Amino acid sequence: MNTIVKCGYRPMFPTFFNEVFESAAAELKDSYYKPAANIKESETGYGIELALPGFEKEEINMKVEKNILEITAGHERKENENEETYSRIEFNRSGKYSRSFILPDTVNLDAIQAEYKNGVLKVNLPKKEVQPVTKKDITIA
After folding, report:
1. Is this prediction's pTM over 0.85?
2. Could you tell me the residue ranges of all domains in the chain?
3. What is the band of 135 on the pLDDT scale with cuts at 50, 70, 90?
4. pLDDT, tens digit, for every residue of 11-25?
């Protein structure tokens, strides 16, 4: 799970450890691939670009639950599909892709928009309008 809040920590050897632990976990459950993402912030909101090449728009699902944005994509395997023998497989057409992001409280959940074009899913997360702080004098009785 990722958060769109900035963090300066970067693991020293992410590739080695990710391959070891993710491959061990994949044997225990369905395989989920983690698509690459770009995250940006502006004064008006946040933007996420997610690489999902080879998918149709209908194969991508997004949901927000408890301030967690979850994006999943997957191809349905057809039963009549011929099983071919490959000498090397670097991507799986029937794989499932999943990525989650923890959203800050400043995101307007009702105004989230998404667009999928040329294999890139662009998600626009606008910030809530900040209400000006009103000053009120309170008299003591």
Report:
1. no
2. 1-7+31-78+91-129
3. confident
4. 544 555 555 455 444
Report the distance separating Cα 4 and Cα 95, nearest Å: 25
Number of residues written out for the chain: 141
Give the tens place of pLDDT for each residue, 62-97: 999 999 999 999 876 655 556 677 787 776 666 788
At the second CATH level, the architecture of 1-7+31-78+91-129 is: Sandwich (2.60)
Residue identified by tokens 């927000």 is 64
HSE on the CB side for 103, CA within 13 Å? 26
Which of 76, 62, 64, 73 is closest to 119 using CA atoms? Answer: 73
User: Exposed e or buried b for every residue in 79-115, given b needs 16+ CB within 10 A?
Assistant: eeeeeeeeeeeeeeeeeebbbebebeeebeeeebebe
The alpha carbon of residue 71 and the mean position of all alpha carbons in its chain are separated, in whole angstroms, by 5
